[in-house]
Design a protein that fits this description.
The complex is a heterodimer.
Chain A: H1 12-20, H2 34-55, H3 59-74, H4 83-87, H5 95-108, H6 113-126, H7 132-144, H8 151-162, H9 167-183, H10 188-199, H11 204-217, H12 229-235, H13 241-258, H14 275-278, H15 282-291, H16 298-307, H17 316-329, H18 337-345, H19 350-366, H20 368-371, H21 386-399, H22 405-416, H23 421-437, H24 442-452, H25 458-474, H26 480-489, H27 496-508, H28 516-527, H29 533-549, H30 551-566, H31 571-584, H32 597-601, H33 625-629, H34 670-679, H35 687-695, H36 708-722, H37 726-729, E1 739-742, E2 750-755, E3 768-776, E4 782-791, E5 796-798, E6 803-806, E7 811-819, E8 827-832, E9 837-842, E10 850-852, H38 857-866, E11 872-878, H39 886-896, E12 900-902, E13 909-916, E14 922-929, E15 934-941, H40 944-959
Antiparallel strand pairs in A: 1-2, 2-3, 3-7, 4-6, 4-8, 5-7, 8-9, 10-13, 11-15, 12-13, 13-14, 14-15
Helix pairs in contact in A: 1-2, 2-3, 3-5, 6-7, 7-8, 7-9, 8-9, 8-10, 9-10, 9-11, 10-11, 11-13, 12-16, 13-17, 17-18, 19-21, 21-23, 22-23, 23-24, 23-25, 24-25, 25-27, 27-29, 28-29, 28-30, 29-30, 29-31, 30-31, 35-36, 39-40
Chain B: E1 2-8, E2 14-19, H1 29-39, E3 48-50, E4 55-61, E5 64-70, H2 76-94, H3 99-104, H4 106-116, E6 117-118, E7 121-122, H5 127-133, H6 139-148, E8 178-191, E9 197-211, E10 217-222, E11 230-233, H7 239-245, E12 247-250, E13 255-264, E14 274-282, E15 288-297, E16 305-313, E17 318-325, E18 329-333, E19 338-344, E20 353-360, E21 372-380, E22 389-395, E23 402-417, E24 421-422, H8 433-443
Parallel strand pairs in B: 8-23, 14-24
Antiparallel strand pairs in B: 1-2, 1-5, 3-4, 4-5, 6-7, 8-9, 9-13, 10-12, 10-22, 11-13, 14-15, 15-20, 16-19, 16-21, 17-20, 18-19, 21-23
The chains are: A alpha+beta, B alpha+beta.
């Protein structure tokens, strides 16, 4: 490498980049690699003297050297070859030197694993230091070193630190849990035990960190929270700000699974009908409310009460998280208290405004009333950034109603004249939306827009025309006046785009202005040769349409224009003229098409829909990254719908007197103590529970279980009583369908179930992740559960580790990865215990062989364009009436296939995109709704077999109610 | 949560990077640069961006971008708030937050970042705690350090982090015990041409500088707390006491901190300290226009208005301005088309006036944009909302501290719209909608 550096010494920047980032992700532009070599040598030379300094005896020299090394790291330059020299100083007495060495170690340990091991003993010693800070910082660095060999050491250190007397050390151990988990996910079970222990900690220092660890490692283990729920609520105010955010968002999710909905049917509320979102379970809710009046669970109230003061926090993230908690959990009439605080956040930094405005935009669609009194806070200032302006405009439009529309329109007038033309254009669109939403002002808006046509700025004109066109298309009958007026203005308008659009409107509605349209055509005939091409084209269109509707008056004019067009310089116009002539003027050559000329040219065109871009954002929890991007982000935890029946409340009771005996039975029921036991022995049994529950499903409300798995099984049993479908309680994005792998009768007590968690497989990207729940239903413990032979032998399976022992009635969840090679052929293998072998098979539904991929509408169309012909499969399907809303369609499609939603600008077209797991082939699903329940379902992929199977599955799912 | 941080200057160079988990290559920033290019102005870059494998959340402060790389779902405000906290800390340590300062103190900044996050989760963000661990540089100390080889890293370990009052260290000692509070209010207002208030509100902040020995417990009460419409507090303030008694009860951090932010919104309460008479007009014939602005005092509660400054963003067509100011000086920046008139103190007897002609580019159509006036001002010894601190009590310590309160009013976002009067043939497009409606009704 040094030899190659004879080249010029390039400037430092570019080279370092290339040197450091080897093996990083692909990018649109790659940095020049030539520069790398030149640079590398300079580093190397400098590093020579650094090495000497580091090896000297003087503290000050070492410190100086380390500072320079850290400077190099900060600039992103490579200094890994100094590792041996640096690591020697890890035991230095000088605190600053030591800290800098730590910085270096954490940065390069992953690359120099063997050498990094030299430092481990120093940390192990420090872990026993009497000073809590030294213990904590040792654990911090130790756990930050990403060297897989030391996993057992880390595990041990974490366990010890979790029991440390100092809360600061315990906090550090909570942080270390996440680090170890990301280094080695296999440690999950053990780490959950530590989390469980730390969750019981009463120190405010620990609370935030451990909940963070919980969210990273095992967010689905809601059962761990029960006992700590009240404590967390009470500690919340005293926890540090960052911890508050994490705890609040976790408690929001928790509450949605544990309490019943406080949103009464038909309550005072609701301008915009909040049902749309929660449509699917509205029926159940009704039955619920009829059965008994709603009483809020005291724990639910506790959460609301304890979070409220945090609205006054100086930390904007805390305020936002409380606001979203109220939005998702509070009774409708209480949500208003967050308004003021949210509006306050608008005075914070620009970036904060951006996020808050996005959330307000979503809220204001459903609940205008919340923000109407603060309308003026959303007025645009000339100094606002463009994205802020657009969001404010969005909100103002959402807030518009009969009472305030005149104020808003007056404000909009100012915006139209803004120097920022993109913003002016957005304002015009907003005026259009107000006009369609509020019929009282439609005329005013239209008139105003018509006037804007004579604006000098082309963007403004073009936008006005588009909006007028849209408005007229929605209700053309009432607006022949406007068309007439536009005809009048026509002479003064010079912008070609606007002239062309007016001509189009004339033609489209020529029957409504029978006298004016021919006159306009006459004028155009005079000026035809001097017009711009776009205007000429529309003139030809107008002539053709008039010829068809009013040939008596316009026959000669049309022929004249067609003749002019025939000899035009532009071939587009010549082409168009020729085409139109053949189409409308009957002669012997034109044949059958001629008869349909009228139907072709004057076909009714669908009116475009003007609606908020934030309409479908409410599918995401407010305040989340997913909400901000309108795309499901990695690791997003779906907010579940309210349960129809509240799970047992007593699980949250805490035995104050006997803190040692953590899982004592609460209310004297024999059945319960059993399930209690299970929570705390880390298993997710449902098999057994199901059996006993089904015998007494009337008892369901008192069941103490609220583990999700159990909860589901409960519902399945109560199905007859409450008509709760499985879908209701599962998140719409990750519907969990569990399949039987091995029945306990055939498995001699061992039963197994599996489901597809729809997560990327950890072991190999081409594998589909499968979670298997093994349960021992026999009366003796089973040993050495593992996977035996497989067929076909080439089948690529990542097995779970052998389970040494499974106690009676215990169950365990394991993950495995299977490479199905994009076929639905079943994976057959043997599930073995010490004594027996059972042949089992996993047959994946075709939709599980996919993984979602995110793309924009544009990319989607582009990809779709590449996959036509052979690669396209489509069918017209009939959907159940319940499935016609876009929410329901999304839900159904996602339940069948693991695909991602592609946002769509058209209301009646739904798009989904995915890739096959093994080969990564693109799979595009689009569904175009036709009238009533019919729809055209199209699948584009090169895997045609998969396409047809997927089509069948989707068809079936959408036909079901 | 937060995976990596890149600091990028306005020319697009990455001059500092820090990773809290495994290293992410700089190339991830290319997506950001793309967006940056598209946005034209740095302020217009969307704060949240999505790339195939990461999410980028950025803030723009002091001509620098703080760009964080995220891999999984996280509340975006959490990250944004944190990044601002980083910028605040740098400002607090070095007096300003700029590329030069960060480059000069790169090791200290790196140490700070190391302490502020652990594995991407905020660890110590209180400036008091940080200052205990990493001492801010002073000239004296840097001289001593170079001579003796001593370090900036505190040899005592942070005590604040352990207690229930993490914002305060233990064992604070002063010979002069003092507590100062600055009540600073900013008026945000939009006035229309006639001077009518379209929108007005006051944002207040109480900045405190407390140097008290031991663990003092303070109670600050107001004469008229009902004025305050909406408040947010430093974590040290006890919410419960505020809710029940409307007093601020707190154990203060040591040194400078923001005690509370508040908001007064009802319009009739917001006094507008100045009025502006102005006309800006362009003639249809000949490339010129006229400008005439006069400013006078309105509701100043008998105090003097100082630091008066008017900023106008002129339409692009305006080439130059030839004006005379009766007081102060004016500058017209040709590149940015910004006219700044720095007036200074407002004398009620002799009102400042700026008058003269504007030259527009020949041959271009008359400007149709309506520039707005931004006004800057300061009033000492006055909180324009009328908020008054009534008393400060101290418990828990025996000594008598020295106490002081200062008031200051400033203009925040203070804007006046001007509707331009233009002599033109194409009158239609510049009229107000109401007018238009009438015209239309009669003409159709």
């Amino acid at each position: 490498m040094r030899n190659m550096s004879t080249a010029v010494l390039y400037n430092d920047q570019g080279g370092a980049e290339a040197a450091v980032e080897a093996g990083q992700e692909s990018t649109p532009t790659t940095s020049s690699s030539g520069a790398a070599f030149g640079l590398f040598s300079t580093d190397f030379k400098k590093n020579e003297d650094l090495k000497e300094m580091l090896e000297s005896n003087k503290e000050s020299l070492k410190l100086e050297a380390m500072k320079r090394v850290v400077g190099l790291i900060a600039k992103g330059k490579n200094s890994s070859e100094l590792f041996p020299a640096v690591v020697k100083n890890v035991a230095s007495k000088n605190i600053e030197l030591k800290k800098l060495v730590y910085v270096y170690l954490v940065r390069y340990a992953e690359e120099q694993q063997d050498l990094a091991l030299l430092s481990i003993s120093t940390f192990q010693r420090a872990l026993k230091d009497p000073n809590q800070f030294i213990r904590a910082s040792a654990l911090r660095v130790l756990s930050s070193i990403r060297v897989p060999i030391i996993v057992p050491i880390m595990m041990l250190a974490i366990k010890e630190a979790a029991a440390d007397l100092s809360p600061y050390v315990r906090k550090t151990s909570a942080h270390a849990i996440q680090k170890l988990y990301s280094l080695d996910p296999e440690q999950k079970e053990q780490l959950i035990e530590v989390i469980e222990k730390l969750l019981k900690d009463k120190s405010t220092l620990v609370a935030g960190s451990v909940v963070m660890a919980f969210e990273e490692v095992c967010p689905d283990r809601i059962d761990l929270i029960h006992k700590n729920y009240r404590k967390l609520c009470n500690l919340l105010v005293d926890v540090e700000e960052w911890g508050q955010v994490v705890i609040i968002s976790m408690l929001t999710r928790y509450a949605r699974t544990q309490f019943t909905s406080p949103w009464k049917e038909g309550a005072i509320f609701d301008e915009n009908n909040d049902k749309t979102f929660y449509e699917s379970d509205s029926e159940e809710k009704k039955e619920q409310t009829e059965a008994k009046p709603y009483i809020m669970d005291p724990d639910h109230r506790l959460l609301l009460r304890n979070t409220k003061p945090l609205l006054q926090s100086r930390n904007t993230a805390v305020v936002m998280s409380v606001a979203q908690l109220y939005w998702h959990l509070a009774p409708k009439h209480e949500v208003n208290i967050v308004t003021k605080s949210l509006v306050r956040l608008l005075r914070s930094h620009r970036e904060v405004q951006y996020i808050v405005l996005q959330n307000i935009a979503t809220m204001s669609i459903q609940r205008k009333g919340m923000f109407e009194p603060y309308m003026k806070s959303f007025y645009v200032r000339s100094t606002d950034a463009t994205h802020i302006k657009t969001l404010k405009l969005e909100i103002l439009t959402n807030l518009a109603n009969e009472a305030n529309i005149s104020t808003i329109l007056r404000e909009f007038q100012t915006y139209v004249k803004s120097q920022d033309k993109a913003f002016a254009a957005a304002t015009i669109q907003a005026i259009g939306r107000c006009a369609t939403n509020i019929s009282e002002v439609t005329d005013t808006c239209l008139n105003g827009l018509v006037l804007l046509l004579s604006n000098r700025d082309e963007t403004v004109v073009a936008e006005s025309v588009v909006v007028i066109k849209k408005l007229l298309q929605t209700q053309p009958t009432q607006h022949s006046e406007i068309i007439k007026h536009m005809a009048k203005l026509f002479d003064n308008i010079t912008v070609p785009m606007a002239r062309a659009s007016i001509l189009w409107l004339m033609g489209e509605y020529c029957e409504r202005v029978p006298k004016i349209a021919p006159d306009v055509l006459r004028k155009m005939a005079k000026t035809f040769t001097a017009e711009e091409d776009i205007v000429k084209l529309q003139t030809v269109n107008l002539a053709a349409k008039l010829y068809l509707t009013n040939s008596k008056q316009t026959k000669l004019l049309t022929q004249y224009i067609l003749n002019l067009g025939k000899y035009d310089q532009n071939y587009d116009i010549r082409d168009r003229t020729r085409f139109i002539r053949q189409l409308i003027v009957p002669n012997e050559k034109s044949g059958a098409l001629n008869k349909y000329a009228r139907r072709i040219l004057l076909a009714p065109k669908p009116a475009p829909v003007l609606e908020s871009a934030f309409k479908d954002r409410d599918r995401f929890q407010l305040g989340t990254l997913s909400h901000s991007l309108n795309v499901k982000a990695a690791g997003y935890q779906e907010l579940s719908d309210w349960p129809a029946v509240a799970p047992d409340q007593s699980v949250r009771n805490v035995e104050v007197i006997e803190p040692v005996k953590e899982w004592a039975p609460l209310v004297g029921k024999t059945k319960k103590s059993k399930s209690e036991d299970k929570f705390y022995s880390d298993d997710e049994d449902e098999k057994e529970e199901e059996g006993s529950e089904s015998s007494g499903s009337e008892d369901s409300s008192s069941s103490s279980s609220s583990d999700e798995g159990l909860f589901l099984s409960l519902f399945r049993d109560c199905g007859g009583l409450f008509r709760v479908s499985l879908q209701v309680t599962t998140p719409s994005f990750g519907p969990v369908k569990t399949y039987e792998l091995l029945h306990h009768m055939t498995g001699k007590g061992l039963s197994a179930k599996y489901h597809f968690p729809r997560q990327p497989c950890l072991y190999q990207p081409s594998m589909v992740a499968v979670q298997v729940i093994l349960t021992n239903s026999s009366d003796h413990s089973l040993e050495e559960i593992h996977i035996g032979d497989r067929s076909p032998a080439s089948l690529n399976i990542h097995c779970f580790n052998t389970i040494e022992r499974l106690e009676p009635e215990a169950s365990v969840t394991v993950s495995m990865g299977i490479d199905f090679s994009d076929s639905t052929q079943a994976a057959n293998f043997q599930l073995c215990t010490k004594e027996d072998q059972f042949s089992v098979s996993i047959q994946p539904a075709v939709g599980e062989l996919l993984m979602p991929s995110t793309m924009t509408e544009e990319d989607f169309s582009k990809e779709q364009g590449k996959l036509l012909g052979m690669n396209e499969t489509s069918a017209t399907i009939t959907m159940a009436t319940a499935n016609t809303s876009s929410q329901a369609i999304g839900k159904q499609v996602l339940s069948v296939a693991n695909v991602g939603v592609v946002s769509s600008s058209q209301n009646n077209v739904h798009r989904f995109a995915g890739r096959t797991v093994s080969s990564g082939a693109v799979v595009l699903v689009s569904l175009e709704q036709k009238e009533s329940c019919a729809a055209l379902l199209t699948i584009n992929t090169e895997k045609s077999v998969m396409a047809s199977m997927l089509l069948r599955d989707l068809k079936q799912a959408l036909a079901q109610a | 949560m937060i995976h990596s941080l890149f600091l990028i200057n306005h020319t697009g160079d990455i001059f500092l990077e820090k990773h809290w988990k495994s290293v992410i290559g700089r190339s991830v920033c290319d997506y950001f640069f793309e967006a940056r290019e598209k946005a034209v102005e740095p302020e217009n870059v969307p704060p949240v961006l999505q790339t195939p494998h990461h999410y980028l959340i950025s803030i723009y402060r002091g001509k620098l971008f703080f760009l964080s790389v995220i891999q999984t779902e996280v509340p975006p405000l959490f990250v944004i708030e944190f990044l601002h906290r980083v910028a605040d800390t740098i400002q607090d340590y070095f007096g300003e937050c700029s590329e030069g300062v960060i480059k000069d103190n790169v090791v200290t900044v790196y140490e700070l970042l190391e302490e502020m996050l652990d594995n991407g989760f905020p660890l110590a963000t209180e400036s008091n705690v940080l200052k205990e661990m990493i001492r801010p540089p002073t000239i004296l100390r840097s001289v001593v350090n170079t001579l003796t080889g001593a370090s900036n890293v505190g040899d005592t370990l942070p005590t604040g982090q352990l207690s229930n009052v993490p914002w305060r260290r233990v064992g604070v000692k002063y010979t002069n015990n003092e507590a100062y509070f600055d009540v600073i209010e900013e008026i945000d207002a939009i006035l229309d041409k006639s001077g009518t208030t379209v929108f007005a509100e006051i944002q207040g902040v109480i900045e405190a500088c407390v140097r008290l020995t031991g663990m003092p417990d303070l109670t600050l009460s107001f004469m008229n707390p009902r004025l305050l419409d909406d408040v947010s507090f430093h974590p040290c303030v006890r919410f419960k006491r505020w809710e029940s008694e409307r007093v601020l009860s707190f154990i203060p951090p040591d040194g400078n901190f923001t005690l509370m932010n508040y908001h007064v919104s009802s319009q009739n309460l917001v006094a507008i300290p100045v009025y502006v008479k102005q006309s800006i007009s362009f003639f249809e014939t000949g490339p010129c226009g006229r400008l005439d602005i006069t400013i006078g005092p309105k509701q100043t509660m008998g105090k003097t208005v100082e630091g008066l400054m008017v900023t106008i963003h002129m339409p692009k067509a305006v080439l130059s301005a030839n004006l005379t100011a009766t007081q102060g000086t004016y500058t017209y920046d040709l590149a940015t088309k910004v006219l700044v008139w720095d007036i200074g103190k407002l004398n009620p007897q002799k009102l400042p006036n700026l008058k003269g002609s504007l030259t527009t580019q020949a041959g271009t159509p008359k400007p149709e944009d309506n520039p707005s006036l931004n006004i800057d001002l300061k009033i000492q010894q006055l909180a324009i909302s009328g908020l008054k601190v009534s008393r400060l009590d101290m418990y828990g310590e025996k000594y008598k501290p020295f106490k002081g309160v200062k008031y200051l009013t400033k203009a925040g976002k203070f804007q006046i719209y001007i509707y331009m009067f233009i002599f033109l043939e194409n009158l239609m497009s510049y009229l107000l909608f109401e007018w238009l409606q009438c015209v239309l009704k009669h003409s159709i």
